[in-house]
Amino acid sequence: MRKAKRRRRALLAVCLNLVALLFSTTAFITTYWCEGTQRVPKPNCAKGKKTNCINYNGDESHNESNSNVVHYSWETGDDRFLFRYFHTGIWYSCEENINGSGEKCRSFIDLAPASEKGVLWLSVVSEVLFILLLVVGFSLMCLEFFQSNNVVDGLKLNAFSAVFTVLSGLLGMVAHMMYTQVLQVTVSLGPEDWRPHSWDYGWSFCLAWCSFTCCMAASVTTLNSYTKTVIEFGHKHKIFEQALQEEQSFTDHNALKYMKERPVQSISSSLEISDDATRNIRKSGLVSTSVDLGEILESLGEEQC
């Protein structure tokens, strides 16, 4: 029963670690940490583009004419701008292509302010170490799960996997916090053609923090399994020592009782032997005295005759 519970705890830790590894890897390679819209000026209308553009004077022919000609547009306020969709990750930031189909991507490291690039690289290194330590912890947990027959080796593997998983969780938390700081500074101080009009955290950001949660849950489960196993060993060892002491005290008591009873028996037997000897001596003395008296009476009878 206890072995089955131990295997269930090990299986739960392995599943949580695997989920954390998948979530962290997906968040690291995707570009949906931040999503929103950017306000950009509408382009001029042309023959191939007649929507989401500015049509000066209501005549398309003037749009491609001499640049010295004054053009008028009746669009004011936000009507002169487009709100294009963008999404950003650790490596790239991609925006909607307003002049065609598809997206245009550029490096997020180039977009970050110079004062935040060091923090960004630290977050990238921490994310890589987070994933590597998760891989190591997952491998150790799998070995511990398949080596469950050998309790001592499984306990050692359990301890090492718990340490690696806790370290990976701490590194993941630091990496996520550093990248969040860099992202917020870039939103405020980044290039003007990139600054978002409205934005929010995306599903990659949620996956990253879910991976941290699963990682810490796996570490807690592993530590719990390790602690319970150690407590069970300590309890069994204590019971064994108590049983051994009781058996030893019982054996000593029996030996002492035997040693106490042995001299009494020997003394009583010696006393019995001495009593028998005295009785024999007394019997022999009585016999001899009776023989002597008979001889004396016989001699006296002869003399009288």
UniProtKB/TrEMBL annotation:
GO terms for cellular component: glutamatergic synapse; postsynaptic density membrane. The chain crosses the membrane at residues 120-146, 158-181, 201-223. It is a multi-pass membrane protein. Gene3D superfamilies: 1.20.140.150. GO terms for biological process: regulation of cell communication; regulation of signaling; regulation of transport. Keywords: Cell membrane, Membrane, Signal, Synapse, Transmembrane, Transmembrane helix. Residues 1-27 form the signal peptide. Its main location: membrane. It is found in: Cell membrane; Synapse. Belongs to the GSG1 family. This is Germ cell-specific gene 1-like protein.
